[in-house]
Specification:
Blueprint: H1 2-17, E1 33-34, E2 39-40, E3 44-45, E4 55-58, E5 67-71, E6 73-75, E7 78-80, E8 83-85, E9 90-91, E10 96-106, E11 113-123, E12 128-137, E13 140-149, E14 151-152, E15 160-170, E16 182-193, E17 199-201, E18 211-212, E19 223-230, E20 234-242, E21 247-256, E22 259-266, E23 273-283, E24 288-297
Antiparallel strand pairs: 1-2, 3-8, 4-5, 5-16, 6-7, 8-15, 9-15, 10-13, 10-16, 11-12, 11-15, 12-14, 17-22, 18-19, 19-22, 20-21, 20-23, 23-24
Length: 299
């Protein structure tokens, strides 16, 4: 029984996803729907006809005539959250800074459920992440705009975008949501252009040693420059991490010749706080160099 439900759900997701041949966010205002699946055109849902429906069309709209409604339903005593996603993705090559949209959210009485929006930009049809962002949507009984800033981990141009909207338990936990919680979402849009971090060779002479310099300025808002030196040719990575060790940016990830380099990092989509940046180099002679330093973002 469970296997049949999974297969049916996967089939529905793929069928809806195959419709996403758009050069923009597909059906961003949720105006057109596929009746047989009760799904917005260009989007996949977790609906399983004959068993449960978590996503429906609503006539309560921010603009136009309809929006998407996602509801947590009870099935065999288990809460089933709504999933609204652009699987397998849609064409997108712009270096957008933020995803916005409008929502209403009604958590079930006595709960602290939240709705969540996740956006990822990929290179190579969902194989190599270029940027990601997200937003947690708290309770709101009127239309409210959300903003999900995109954090770029690569200078590579994306070619595919994916958006997912769902409901989870208490913010910051892995607890399941509660039956009856629901959201309305409408008018999604990308806006702004994220700056491109480019690595610049700042010297002609070959350094005597490997080195990672302190960023400047520090503290900074929102951009800073990081310089480093390579005494030998090798594969270099320069990454930025949160104080908890979560990677937030990949500034260098390539084979490089000996030299002195600098890279500008723009942290416009990140909150204030202490971050770590780490240089790791494996030279062609097998020498390994690693060094980390702290930087402070103050907004």
């Amino acid at each position: 029984m469970k296997r049949s439900l999974i297969l049916l759900s996967a089939t529905a997701l793929l069928f809806c996803g195959a419709l996403t041949a758009f050069a923009q966010i597909p059906n961003a205002g949720f105006e057109t729907w596929i009746p047989v699946l009760n799904s917005p055109t260009g989007w996949a849902t977790g609906n399983i006809p004959g068993f449960y429906t978590t996503v429906t069309q609503s006539t309560t709209a921010h603009s136009g005539s309809s929006s998407a409604k996602g509801t947590v339903v009870a099935f065999a005593t288990n809460p089933i959250p709504p999933t609204l996603t652009t699987i397998p993705g849609f064409p997108w090559s712009q270096r957008s800074a933020v995803l916005t949209g409008y929502y209403q959210f009604f958590p079930a009485a006595g709960t602290t459920d939240s709705a969540y929006v996740t956006v990822v930009l990929y290179k190579g049809q969902l194989t190599a992440p270029v940027a990601a962002g997200g937003a947690s949507l708290g309770s709101s009984s009127s239309w409210k705009q959300f903003s999900a800033p995109l954090i770029y981990v690569s200078t590579t141009a994306a070619d595919t975008g994916m958006i997912m909207i769902t409901i989870g338990g208490s913010s910051g936990t892995s607890s399941p949501p509660h039956a009856g919680s629901y959201f309305l979402v409408d008018d999604l849009a990308f806006s702004g252009t994220a700056p491109l971090s480019a690595v610049e060779n700042t010297g002609n002479s070959v350094p005597n040693s490997f080195a990672l310099e302190q960023n400047y300025p520090n503290p900074f808002n929102p951009s800073t420059k990081i310089s480093f030196s390579l005494a030998q040719q090798g594969f270099a990575t320069l990454k930025v991490y949160s104080i908890l060790g979560v990677e937030v940016a990949s500034l260098v990830n390539e084979q490089k010749d000996p030299g002195t380099f600098s890279v500008n990092w723009n942290a416009a989509g990140l909150p204030s706080g202490m971050y770590l940046y780490r240089l790791s180099v494996t030279s062609e002679k097998g020498q390994v160099f690693e060094q980390s330093k702290k930087l402070m973002l103050l907004k």
